[in-house]
Write a structure and sequence with these properties.
Blueprint: H1 2-28, H2 31-47, H3 56-76, H4 78-82, H5 98-112, H6 116-127, H7 132-139, H8 143-163
Helix pairs in contact: 1-2, 1-3, 2-3, 6-8, 7-8
Pfam family, one: Sigma70_r4
Organism: Cellulomonas fengjieae
Protein name: RNA polymerase sigma factor
């Protein structure tokens, strides 16, 4: 009996799987959903063996009704309303930049605690890429003064960052 039911189910799948899939694709435009719906319809046919013994027209009508109802149920589901699928995944993963933004805010806030002279040499050297000699000419001070300001500015910056919870 089981072998006969299996043979009938294979014949049912052979005869109707492709036309049912085309029907669902015409209804939804979604090939993946069409495969899932046809598979579910075949499972339902398997769990209702009386369908396998009906005449061909009644079996066909039952399968198309099941498929249509499955599509309607899918379209009414919360998953369909909230989820969107795409055929193509993004090419590359984008790194999360939120930590870098937070770090830059933290450093900018700590830089505000420095004196204008100290801030100018730190920003000029680290963000501007200028040498001690260039900073000395720009601020019209001796190179030793620039070095001294840099030393005390970095010390003050380290303390300001420690106060904000950044550990060394």
């Amino acid at each position: 009996m089981a072998d006969e039911a299996d043979a009938l189910l294979r014949a049912l799948h052979q005869a109707y799987a492709r036309p049912l899939q085309h029907y669902v694709v015409r209804l939804t435009g979604d090939h993946a959903l069409a495969q899932d719906v046809v598979q579910e319809a075949m499972v339902r046919a398997w769990t209702h063996p009386e369908v396998l013994t009906r005449d061909e027209g009644a079996t066909r009508a039952w399968l198309y009704t099941v498929v249509r109802n499955l599509v309607i149920d899918d379209r009414r589901s919360a998953r369909h309303v909230r989820e969107r699928s795409t055929e193509h995944a993004p090419d590359t993963a984008q790194p999360d930049a939120s930590q870098a933004v937070l770090d830059s805010w933290l450093v900018a806030d700590a830089l505000e605690q420095l004196t204008p002279e100290h801030r100018a040499v730190v920003v000029g050297a680290y963000y501007g890429g200028r040498s001690v000699a260039e900073l000395a000419r720009e601020h019209q001070v001796p190179e030793g003064t620039v070095k001294s300001r840099m030393h005390y500015a970095l010390r003050a910056l380290r303390l300001a960052l420690q106060e904000r919870g950044v550990t060394s």
